Amino acid sequence: MSDARLAELTRCLPGLRLLTEPGDLEHYGRDWTRRWTPSPLAIALPASIEEVQAIVRWANLQHVAIVPSGGRTGLSGGAVAANGELVLSLERMNRVLDFDAVDRTLTVQPGIILQAVHDAARSHGLIYPVDFAARGSCSIGGNIATNAGGIRVIRYGNTREWIAGVKVITGNGELLELNRGLTKNSSGYDFRQLMIGSEGTLGIVVEATLRLTDPPPTSQVMLLALPDMDALMQVFALFRARLTLQAFEFFTDRALEHVLAHGAQRAIEGDYPYYVVTEFDATDERAQDAALAAFEHALEQGWVSDGVIAQSDAQAAALWRLREGITESLASRRPYKNDVSVRISAVPAFLQEMQALLAREYPQIEVVWFGHIGDGNLHINVLRPDDLAEEAFIAQCEHVTKLLAATLQRHGGSISAEHGIGLVKRAYLESTRSAAEIALMRGVRKVFDPNGVLNPGKLFADG
Ligand code: 2HG
Ligand code: ZN
To answer: Residue 314 is inside which H or E element, if any?
Structure first.
């Protein structure tokens, strides 16, 4: 190990697992954005809170930046290490530490994969309700760092709602035990909530206590084909009024083409421009009849052109795949992504303006939309044409993002709904947060991380 800083780290922590092979640097230095060339100094894989703490203290003394790292499924570059940082991977700290049946909490290490959290909760007859397609590879620490949302937000809210306590190591190397699982705690600033969504810039999550809840009643999954965009919010209002929704997701015909080409099964014959996958409580016959009645009403009104209801778990999974498989089906194209939100009531007006903007600004470019329309959250994936160079493509997308940010600002929306700001959306933070807010955010960062060792350059340019 030729680097003197790494030699010092090994001297402080002789048992620490450190990786410096080029393959490892590349693997751990990037996330799903694939836009930056990974170039970390090394990868540290601590196995305990004490090791994390010692690494942060070392980083302060040696002036080394740390990139906290979970499953690296992020889409905003929050876990990218492209500037000689030390990647602090929490993947070895991946155990369930405790289940408390009275508190209904599960205490876990940060590197645990979301799917393993789901399985552990289920093994106790409960659920951890935050869920999304990356469940098999994302980690709970990363979910907390980005306040991850997903497909059940409409029913259960974001990650924020489910964190009863966190232990973090601040940029100073201090261990904070925040909220300790309390349901009620009116004792001043809630630093737990401040940590959630801070993208690794205030502290490193080293343990989390998750709230669990009862499993939802039996549900049904429906796929609907819609004739136009206006119908989308009509169907949403109707279904929300008549049914108890667990999810309400939409995608376009272009998105469907990609998932089908990627191996998913077609569920509705014919071509329609928009589709909805919805899941709702269907406890008894009355609830199922209500769903059919809602569907028929939507058909009569002309808001829905066709639909299927899953008759088995396998069919429900196949319908879900049409929505959840979209990101993976596009991944090889390395799309430029926008992840925006407005209040639900502002969706129709925003969609109209956004549609016009995208049609005008991307005339020759394929744009795929989908998302959590019931939360006012849209994902826009822009695909680079083969004959357009990467740099020119990104420049064009950045230009459109600026216009989109201005449109969002007019509608009171956000440039990042659930993926975080990271590196990708850093330049647009001002469209969502006021100058006064950003100044305070920087001030808070200084308090928790005075030397700026935690994920510098993410969220906002340091300085
Ligand atoms: C989803 O909703 C994820 O599937 C990914 O947030 C969205 O790939 C995307 O743009
Ligand atoms: Zn999403």
So the answer is: helix 313-324
Where are any strands of DSSP class E within 171-244?
175-178, 203-211, 219-226
Q: What is the pLDDT of residue 1?
A: 56
pTM: 0.97
Token pair in block for residue 243: 């049914």
Secondary structure, 3-state, 229-288: HHHHHHHHHHHHHHCCEEEEEEEEHHHHHHHHHCCCCCCCCCCCCEEEEEEEECCCHHHH
Measured by CA distance, the residue closest to atom 8 of ligand 1 is 327
Ligand 1 within 6 A of CB of 176: no
In a domain, 153, yes or no: yes
Residue 433 token pair? 């947060």
Q: Is 73 in the pocket of ligand 1 (CB under 6 A)?
A: no
Residue 37 belongs to domain spanning:
4-92
Instruction: State the average pLDDT over residues 72-98.
Output: 98
d(CA 206, CA 208): 7
What residue type is assigned to position 146 of the chain? T
258 lines ligand 1 (CB under 6 A): no
| Residue ending a domain, choose from 327, 353, 379 | 327
- Scan for tokens 């549900």, then name that residue: 219
Contacts of 337 (CB under 8 A, 6+ apart): 75, 379, 380, 381, 382, 419, 424
Mean pLDDT of 226-246: 96
Residue 204 is assigned to a structural domain of this protein? yes
458 domain-assigned: no
Last residue of a domain, one of 158, 189, 211: 211
Residue whose structure tokens are 């979301």:
114
Q: pLDDT of 384-428, one tens digit each?
A: 999 999 999 999 999 999 999 999 999 999 999 999 999 999 999
For the chain, how far is it from start to end, CA to CA, in angstroms? Answer: 31
Q: Is residue 285 part of a domain?
A: yes
Spell out a b/e string for 201-228, using b for 16 or more CB atoms within 10 Å of the CB, else e. Answer: bbbbbbbbbbbbeeebeebbbbbbbbee
Contact partners, residue 313, CB within 8 Å, separation at least 6: none
pLDDT at site 318:
98
Q: Ligand 1 pocket test: which of 322, 375, 379 has the largest number of ligand atoms within 8 Å of its C-beta? A: 379
The pLDDT value given to residue 461? 87
